[in-house]
Specification:
Elements (H helix, E strand, L loop, with lengths): L24 E4 L3 E2 L12 E3 L4 E10 L3 E8 L4 E6 L3 E3 L19
Antiparallel strand pairs: 1-4, 1-7, 2-3, 4-5, 5-6
């Protein structure tokens, strides 16, 4: 019987270097629950709350498509594997998005 792997994106992150570096300070962009891969915790149990701060401990890959960042959360006493879209850098924040000004230079 064939198994179908469902990918949640057509993008292969491994074509580019990792977004985050070892030791970089990051913040969780979402609540992360145990999907069954975190030993010693129940499936569905909250592992990380939105806004919690951690540090990149290691960088691995998953499904030959994604970088998985082991983020050490010192206040929790453990590290959690997270995708890049689930965290944001506090050391190197992205520049704010700019709104294009219409031709003529006037805004409403």
């Amino acid at each position: 019987m064939a198994t179908t792997i469902v990918r949640d994106s057509d993008v292969n992150e491994l074509n580019d270097p990792p977004r985050f570096k070892f030791g970089e300070k990051v913040k969780s962009k979402k609540v992360v629950r145990n999907d069954g891969t975190f030993n010693g915790r129940d499936i569905g149990e909250v592992l990380v709350k939105k806004g919690e701060v951690g540090y990149i401990k290691s960088i691995n890959t998953f499904l030959q498509q994604f970088y998985i960042y082991a983020v050490d959360f010192p206040e929790r006493g453990y590290a959690v594997g997270m995708k890049g879209r689930e965290i944001e850098s506090l050391d190197n924040p992205l520049p704010p998005k700019t709104v294009p000004v219409p031709e003529g230079g006037e805004t409403a």
